[in-house]
Structures are given as C-alpha cells and as structure tokens.
Amino acid sequence: MRDDQLRSILDARTANPGAIALAAARRKRPVSLLNEHGRLMMIAADHPARGALGAGDRPMAMADRADLLDRLCLALSRPGVNGVLGTPDVIEDLLLLDALDDKVVVGSMNRGGLSGSVFELDDRFTAYDASAVAGMGYEGGKMLLRIDPADAASVRTLEACGRAVSDLARMTKLAMVEPFLARRVDGRVHNVLDADAMIRAVTVAAGLGTTSAYTWLKVPVVPDMARVMAATTLPAVILGGEVSADPDAAFERWRAALTLPTVRGLVVGRSLLYPPDDDVAGAVDTAVSLF
C-alpha cells in the first residue's frame, strides 16, 4: 500500500468520518450475487475482529492492517473475484480505497465469541446488524453458528441467528449462515468435521428465521460431502478454513465440492491471502480456475 493511500484512510477517519458513508453511497453495486462464471467468489477478512490473527505458521499474520489491506486489494482485483466478507473496520477501509465497485459486500455480524474465551459460544452480535447492512447498501450479512449440546450459551447464539435471518430477509438481503456442531476439548472449542455432524448443523441452520428465502449456507469440506449437501436445498458456499500445508490438496477438495448441485461458490480468507509461498495472485487465480 502506498503511503498516500494509508494517509488518506487515516485522514478520513480522523477529520472526515462522513466520508465512509459517502463512499458507500457512491459504490457501484453488483447486478447479481453471481459472477460471469455463475458462481460467488468471495474473499473473507473477518478473522481479526474475533482476535484470530494467525495464518498458517504465522501467529500474527493479520496484525498488520496495511499489509492485510494490500493483500485484500490484490485479491479483489483478480479476474473472477466478485465479493468480500468483513467487519465494519475492514469493509470501510476498502470503501475509502475505492476497492468495492461491482463487488458483493457481506457484513460479518456476530463477532463477540472471541477465540479462546470462556464465552466463545455465546456469540453476540457485536458488528453489523441487518439495518446497518441495508443502510450501507451491502448485499447481505454473515453469521457464525456453533452449537455445543453441552454448552447452554449455544441457545442464545441460535436465537440471535434466527432473528438476524428474519431481519435480513425482511430487507431482501442475503443471510449467510456458517453452522457447526462443536465441543470443548481441554477447554478449547473445536468444530466437529464429519458428515453426520455437518448434516445436523446444516439442517438446523436451514430452519432458522421466519423464511429461508434469502438464506445461504457457508460450509467446510468434510468427508462424504455429497451426503452433507443432500441434506438441504439451500444454496451453499465452501469456506476455505485454515491455511493448508498442502494447498494443492485443498484446491482439489474445493474442486470436488463445487461439482455438487447446491454448491454455488467459495468464500476463502487466510488460505488465499496468506498462502505458504505468499503468492496471493497465484492462489486466488487457482481458486477461480476451479469454477
């Protein structure tokens, strides 16, 4: 990022915060959620707001905001990339950089379940709400839903997600739900990544809210993915997850999942922004080539 670009962000935030709303108002909206290849290809950057800054073997990879924005702008500039998922601070930096024209913008909503905290599964809606998503002219909102049958906090998150799905649908905005069954092991939350667990999580998520008309699911690739995706008729996108030590194997898993009829795209963050060889453009282009 050039010094003048970073300075323009700092100047706007210090002396002219209204510039953010103006940038949102003048943003050129996408005509569809889907790109010319008929898929949704989004870059995710909502991890820092949960205190999750690591990527691969770099525990503080996402701690340098200018570097993160550099990587995001590069990823968003690549052919076939048509969206971004982030919290208000990240999205607004990108607005001030004029990086979001024709892009699908999805605001991340519940970021209160901080990584490693005792209240991680009481995942409060501390970022966007439906009215803010609509007011800024964004295309939708995303929420994480982790359900641990042994943790009573899960039901509060479940209720809040159901309310958010209803609110977004009332405003005809996309509701992207990322569901998992979870459990604590040695005090830390772990998602259960097998087919039966994902089927249960997907079916619960699909039933949230007063209508499912605007609901999409965001799901990981697990073994027997065809059986998981057969559990719902809702459109789904594949999430990228942690940076893989074997990127080629990860790409192949995504390719296989994209052949399933309900899978409509990819939403990937750290795997593309912080690939092992640091070639962001190459990683993004490879992901787009899977469509």
Describe what this molecule looks like in 3D.
The protein has 291 residues and is α/β, with parallel strands linked by helices. The protein has a single domain (3-288), classed as Alpha-Beta Barrel (TIM Barrel), CATH 3.20.20.70. It contains eleven helices and nine strands. It has helices at 3-15, 18-26, 65-77, 88-96, 130-135, 153-170, 195-206, 225-229, 247-257, 270-273, 280-288; strands at 40-45, 83-86, 104-108, 140-147, 174-185, 188-191, 215-219, 236-239, 263-268. Strands 1-2-3-4-5-7-8-9 form an eight-stranded parallel barrel, surrounded by four helices. α4 links the parallel β2 (83-86) and β3. The two termini are 30 Å apart.
Write the layout of secondary structure elements.
Elements: H1 3-15, H2 18-26, E1 40-45, H3 65-77, E2 83-86, H4 88-96, E3 104-108, H5 130-135, E4 140-147, H6 153-170, E5 174-185, E6 188-191, H7 195-206, E7 215-219, H8 225-229, E8 236-239, H9 247-257, E9 263-268, H10 270-273, H11 280-288
Helix pairs in contact: 2-4
Number of strands: 9
- Give the class from helix and strand content and strand pairing: alpha/beta
Q: Please give the count of helices.
A: 11
Biggest β-sheet strands, sense, barrel: 8 strands, parallel, barrel
Principal-axis shape equals globular
Just give the CATH class. Answer: Alpha Beta
Helicity range of the residues?
25-40%
> How many independent structural domains?
1
Radius of gyration: 18 Å
CATH topology-level name: TIM Barrel
